[in-house]
Every structure is written in structure tokens, then in C-alpha cells.
Amino acid sequence: MGKKRVTSHDVARLAGVSRSVVSAVLNDTPGIGVSAETRENVLAAIRELNYHVDAQARSMKTGRSLSLAAFGDTRHPLFMRLLEGMQRECETQGYHILLCSPGQRPDGEARDELVDLYHQRKIDGIVTLDGTSYRDEAWAAKVSEAGIPYVSVEGYAETEGVCSVLADYKGSVELALDYLLRAGTPQLQAPLYAEVYHESTRSWAERTRRDAYTGWCSERGMSPFSFRLPEREGRVEWEEWLLKLADAGKPLPPLLVNWSSGIPDLYRAAHKLGLRIGEDLRVMAADNTIQGHRLSLPSLSCVEIPYVGMGEEAVRRVLKQLEGGTASGAAGKIWLPAVLRAGESA
Fold this sequence. Notes:
Largest sheet: 7 strands, mixed
Mean pLDDT: 86
Structural class: alpha/beta
Strand content: 15-25%
Distance between the termini: 69 Å
Number of strands: 13
Radius of gyration: 26 Å
Shape: elongated
Number of helices: 13
Helix content: 40-55%
């Protein structure tokens, strides 16, 4: 036979207090005064009896599971960094994470399971990592109608009525350009902007980055010059563009690249043409998805989208909705600034 479970009644009897006092100590219940001596007696009894809170019983009493769902593609490095931030904040708040991924299923089918989990009281809220142009109105309506505390990270940037934690892409480009033309560096001409892309349609984030570049140049009386390069089968062909720049017979202008994933091929092409990164060609990336500042030589200068911080903020916003109702921040947009990673390439 299994060992009899220790209950809060056993703790109360050993400590010589009522069960309400034990509950107040365990939950820091406001309005119930517990002296330091009494609190220590209760804690001593808990240690002696090796008492553990019955999570199922607490859930039935409070209506909360103390778990949040994190939904995203587990193969994506950005989702892993988001989870790092969510885990940090959840540990602080006494919450756990239920990891959910669509896998091979349709996205909508996988998301519907999150709603079911909420109704089953297995989760208290949902955080999703979405594409920067994601705005599924049907999903947002379903979450709202169910009253589920919900935050989209990166999604619904241009949609009202959904709480989103977003990166300040405009500020990230301005931060990168300010660094490229900082005091003490050659002030030749406006930096060039290279937009690496996977497909013809640009996302909201990429439109924002390009507009920020154009605006930054215009404010300084500089002529912006941007160009697009496709990324095919994981490769970006830089050599033709570098040859055009080198053939002009002038020092090369600084170059800002939208994605760090295009940087390794740029380094290879520059090496092939005898161009020294950081000297002949100053380079910077407007993101740090592949942790390029650690992997490249010379080390890459870049601005980093703060996915860890976004995960922390998403948890805080979900719990705020949980405490005050979904209306307490359901429609807000929270913008987090990028982080400068200064390297040797610029």
C-alpha cells in the first residue's frame, strides 16, 4: 500500500495552528496577520512532515493551473530564445510552461487544441511566437470570445484589439546606422542597405526596416541606396554586387544587411575578392538570428532583437490579464528596443 499523503491538516496540527493560518503562510494571503514566530513554526512543520501542496486540489480551489502555454516552432532558434525568457519570468511568478508546437499539423488545428486546454483548466493563458505579418482574425476572435489571457509575440503589429509584444524594428535600424556613422569613423556617404529575402513578399518588419533606413538618410540629407538579394537554397550571391562597388574606384561605403543569415556568404565573397571586412568593407547586420557576433571572424557588429526580454514581457502581460481580466491590456502594443552588439566588422 502507498504511503498516506500528508495534508495541510497534519501541518496545522503539528504547528498548533488552524488550517487557514497554514494556507496564509503558503499563499501569502493578504489581510491575515501571521507573526514571524508562527510563520516559522508552520514552515518547520512543513519541513518535518515533507509536505507538498496538492497542485490538483489547489487548481480546483483557485481555478488556476499555474501553467502557461508557449506555442511556436521548436525547430526555430528564435522560439528557443523566447522560451528562455518565458522560463525566467515563470520561475519568478511560480508558473510552469506547457510547450506546444504545431509539428506536422495545420497551424489552426494545433491552435484549437490550446483553446481546449484552457477550457480543461490545464493552462491559464497562451503566448504564441508568430511571423511579423501574422494577423489571423479568426484566431484572435476565438481567443477573445473564450476570455483567454493571450499575448502574441511579433504578430498583430498592425491589428487593434490584440495584445502584442513587438520589437522596435525602426529603432533597431536607426541604432545600427548611428553606429556605422559614429564619431571617429570615415564619413564617406550614406550606408548602403542590402535586403536579403526568401520570397517576393516583404513582411511588416522588413517594410519597417527599409522605411527606417530611407527616413534616416533623408533626415541627414543623404541619398539612400538599397538593393535586394534573394536567398536561394540557403545561399546569397554577393560577389556581383561587391564587384560593382569595387569597380567604382572609390572607398566602399558602409553596408547594413537586414538579416545576419546572409553574412557568412558576404564574408566568403569579400575574402574571394581580397576585401578585408572591417577595413575595406565595414559591415553590420540589422538582426542577430544566428548569433553572428559569436560565429564570425572578424566578429560581426549587429543589433539584436531581444527575444529573451520579449518572452519575459509576454509572461508579465498574460499574468496581468489574468489578474485584472483580459481587458486589462488585451489591446496593447508593447515595443522593446533592440540591443547593440559591437564587433570588429564595423
